[in-house]
Specification:
about 160 residues; alpha+beta
Length: about 160
């Protein structure tokens, strides 16, 4: 099987399974009024990495590779951040040392809607825009600011789309 065909098949099945997760969350929230059941943390990160693999010409690294999540087809180490939210993402300082590129995705809850690429470009372009490092070791990057910075990235500095 051609590698791109494998990615397409896994991407389609991943979208189906993630849609089931959202249906489960919706049902739990209906059953327990006033209670939220957000998809959070590692699960969202892994969903984002799978989405990035489908969208971009990159190869995912083993989970918990220090400072980056994938390698682009041009050899750059890529940090991937994902969220379902509207506020922002956190970036660890270890990423600044290891990753050359950053891809930030706002995930869609619906399989028929595309994920939004909030930022795709050099990590160094956003490092100065990050807030102060918080007690969790991460600096916060607002999605609005990332969208703004994304408009300044030349095409030749972006991770190539599939």
């Amino acid at each position: 099987m051609h590698p791109d065909a494998d990615v397409r098949a896994r991407t389609a099945r991943t979208a189906e399974l993630v849609d089931q997760l959202h249906s489960i969350v919706t049902e739990l929230e209906r059953m327990h009024p006033g209670r939220r059941f957000p998809l959070d943390g590692h699960l969202v990160g892994s969903i984002g990495e799978a989405a990035a693999e489908a969208m971009f010409a990159l190869t995912l690294r083993p989970a918990s590779t220090a400072g980056y999540d994938a390698v682009a087809d041009d050899g750059r180490a890529v940090e991937i951040k994902a969220t379902y939210g509207t506020g922002g993402v956190g970036l660890r300082s270890s990423s600044h040392d290891a990753a050359a590129a950053l891809v930030v995705i706002r995930l869609s809850r619906h399989p028929d809607e595309e994920h939004e690429v909030v930022y795709n470009g050099p990590l160094s372009r956003v490092a100065h825009a990050a807030g102060a490092v918080q007690s969790n070791g991460q600096a916060r990057l607002g999605l609005g600011r990332l969208r703004q910075l994304n408009t300044t990235v030349p095409d030749n500095e972006r991770v190539r789309r599939r």
